[in-house]
Queue: 3 jobs
Job 1
Amino acid sequence: MKHAAITIYHNPDCGTSRNTLALIRNSGVEPAIVEYLKTPPGRARLVDLIAAMGVPVRAVLRRQGTPSDELALDDPKWTDDQLVDFMVAHPILMNRPIVVTPLGTRLCRPSELVLDILPSPQLAPFAKEDGEPVIDAKGRRVAS
């Protein structure tokens, strides 16, 4: 398996994150894996990732299983800078997985969004952990 300039900000406890990692590996590439709960990206890197994705800061906020409600992060009073500060202080607030490749940076929810930014084709059939087929025997994306 070749190593490529692909990085995944990964949570091994998350099925979507595991499926995304498996799709990257199914393209013959072993990515750099950043377990962001153990090694948070830091403020500057997080700001760069959000900018590269071209999405609003709020699109990167995870609500389920986080202190989002206790912190009242849905309140429009919070600025983007303040929301980034919350994600730096509580990395669990970062939605996942975020994948960086030479073709772009994307929040891969659902996991098959990673296919749009992988430089190499899929090498084998692939189904998600729940059995949902994603790649057929010819390496093509299965229509959902």
Note: The chain has a mean pLDDT of 95.
Job 2
Amino acid sequence: MSPRRSYVEENTRERERLRTLVERLSDVELRRPVNDYWTVAAVLGHIAFWDARALVLAEKLERGEPFSLSDAEPEDVTWINDATRPLIHAIAPREVARLALRLAEETDQRIASLAPGLTAQLWPESPTSPLNPLRAAHRGEHLDEVAAALKP
């Protein structure tokens, strides 16, 4: 299996897992804490934020704009996650869940449709690229946390 097919299939698997979760969660479950800082809905909003970043970078790549140093993700993203947390929590839980699914769909479609010449500019083929096409890893990590929080 080519690396491209692999990330497309992995992204699809985790996106469908996200879809199943969003479609079955009750409003009470969306408000359930995952940890001291995030609710289930907010974790979904966190996933949406980072998918939106990937979507913006993919669109930039499609327009032929080179990546810049400011596109790079800092080594420690804690401050970014901390800064987005109050904004994400301000969105109605059901809406943020729907947003997470919509952005996952848009991001995966955009990344999967990149022309073969552009995929060479993605991480890890291009080690300095700020765009990692494998969205599944980040989603899966957080969906596992949500699943653990929802266990009776």
Note: The chain has a mean pLDDT of 95.
Job 3
Amino acid sequence: MIITNKQLTKNDFEQITKIWLDSNLEVHNFIKKSYWLRNVNYVKQALLKAEILAYKVEDEILGFTGVKEEYIEGLFVADSQRGKGIGSELLAELKNQHDTLKLFVYKKNQKAVNFYLAKDFQIFSEELEEETGELNISMFWKK
């Protein structure tokens, strides 16, 4: 079931933070672990301000997405749940709620780039992220 910020508990936010960290460490292993660890507290605060959709079964968060205005700040699915359609369901719900969506994805994360391209996102530009030294691809979707 997809739920929103208003339905999330403190434990849910802890699970979301863990999924965020674990996913980034695994999928973005080309970026130093210290970068992700250094940003955990920032992300906890940002999550409180973002529009969140979480995929929850019983008491377990299996995936989530955070959006601020029309910008997708992240779409994450627990490792054991990837490939089961959870990310697609969360993205479909975002598309129902928004006319335009934008995001950045690391160029080296080709699996994510391909996922968004398959979901009708288009590449807008590429730019170097100074803090990580990695190329980011800017993508957008319009209804």
Note: The longest strand covers residues 60-68.
